[in-house]
Every structure is written in structure tokens, then in C-alpha cells.
């Protein structure tokens, strides 16, 4: 049973990783949370890590924490744990927690060094590229690519 007032926990929690090692998490204040409610995010990248509080909060116009920016995030093999709790002078605030596999929320960079070499003879064109940057994938053959060629 969750302690705290129903409807006071955050809603719409979501995170994404971009440019290899940056992560943003955002949420909305609980529908029925008192106006003075402030939220705090804690996370563990793996079960062996200590829980850490967010360093760089994203705030709304009222100064309420509605997100967090992370730097130097490494994608580990196991799920990361996120906990957002809240405080208010008026009432107890319910907490929200979630386990997330970080590789599933990574937005990959485009493939690198894309080159196109075309010849006039029937051989056509050779397109080459290197895999996108990522912090966790050693196997290049894990990537799948799709080429869309538009004739001009």
C-alpha cells in the first residue's frame, strides 16, 4: 500500500538517452498534488551502485522540479532504478518508481562517415558508412540499416 495522498505521485515519467552519454527524464506533477509539492528524483544505474539524487533539475514556471538532466551516463547490462518522491507541508506525497533498461531508451546518432561513390558503368554506386556512436554496443553486427534511394 502506497503511503500518501492518492493522485499526488508524478505522472507521465519518461527518459531518453541521446548523444551517447546524456539522459533527460521528465514527468508531470500529480493531478491532486498540493500546490507546494516539490519532487526529487533518485536513481541507481545498477544494483551495485549507490542511489544518487539528480544534479541538474528541470523546473517549471513555478520552480517545481519536473525533470532531470544527466551527463556521463553509461548503459549497464542490467536495469536502472528510478524513484521520484515528493514533499509538501500539507500532506504526504506518494512516490513513483520504475525499472528501465537504458539501451531501450537510447536515441542513436546517425551512422558516421557516409560516403557514396558512383561509376558510369553498370556497377552503379557503392555506399559505405560506420556504425553510430553508442556507449554500450561492442558488436557492430547488432545494427540493422535501411537505405532509402530517391531518384532525381
Automatic annotation (TrEMBL):
Membrane topology reported for the UniProt record: Single-pass type I membrane protein
Pfam family, one: IL6Ra-bind
One CC-aspect GO term: external side of plasma membrane
Membrane among keywords: yes
InterPro entries tied to this protein: FN3_sf (IPR036116), Ig-like_fold (IPR013783), Short_hematopoietin_rcpt_2_CS (IPR003532), TypeI_recpt_CBD (IPR015321)
GO molecular function: cytokine receptor activity
Keywords linked to the UniProt accession: Glycoprotein, Membrane, Receptor, Signal, Transmembrane, Transmembrane helix
Chief location category: membrane
PROSITE patterns linked: HEMATOPO_REC_S_F2
Compartments, record wording: Membrane
Domain Type I cytokine receptor cytokine-binding as annotated: residue spans: 12-105
Presence of keyword Glycoprotein: yes
UniProt cross-references to PANTHER family, sorted A to Z: CYTOKINE RECEPTOR, INTERLEUKIN 5 RECEPTOR SUBUNIT ALPHA
Record-given protein name: CSF2R factor
Originating organism: Pygoscelis papua (Gentoo penguin)
Amino acid at each position: 500500500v502506497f503511503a500518501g495522498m492518492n493522485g499526488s505521485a508524478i505522472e507521465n515519467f519518461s527518459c531518453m538517452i541521446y548523444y551517447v552519454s546524456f539522459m533527460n527524464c521528465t514527468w508531470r506533477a500529480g493531478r491532486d498534488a498540493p500546490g507546494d509539492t516539490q519532487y526529487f528524483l533518485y536513481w541507481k544505474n545498477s544494483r551495485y551502485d549507490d542511489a544518487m539524487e539528480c544534479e541538474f533539475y528541470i523546473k517549471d514556471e513555478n520552480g517545481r522540479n519536473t525533470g532531470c538532466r544527466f551527463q556521463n551516463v553509461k548503459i549497464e547490462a542490467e536495469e536502472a532504478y528510478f524513484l521520484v518522491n515528493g514533499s509538501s507541508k500539507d500532506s504526504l506525497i506518494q512516490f513513483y518508481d520504475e525499472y528501465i533498461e537504458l539501451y531501450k531508451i537510447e536515441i542513436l546518432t546517425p551512422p558516421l562517415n557516409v560516403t557514396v561513390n558512383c561509376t558510369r558503368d553498370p556497377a552503379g554506386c557503392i555506399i559505405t558508412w560506420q556504425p553510430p556512436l553508442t556507449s554500450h554496443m561492442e558488436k557492430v553486427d547488432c545494427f540493422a540499416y535501411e537505405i532509402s534511394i530517391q531518384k532525381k
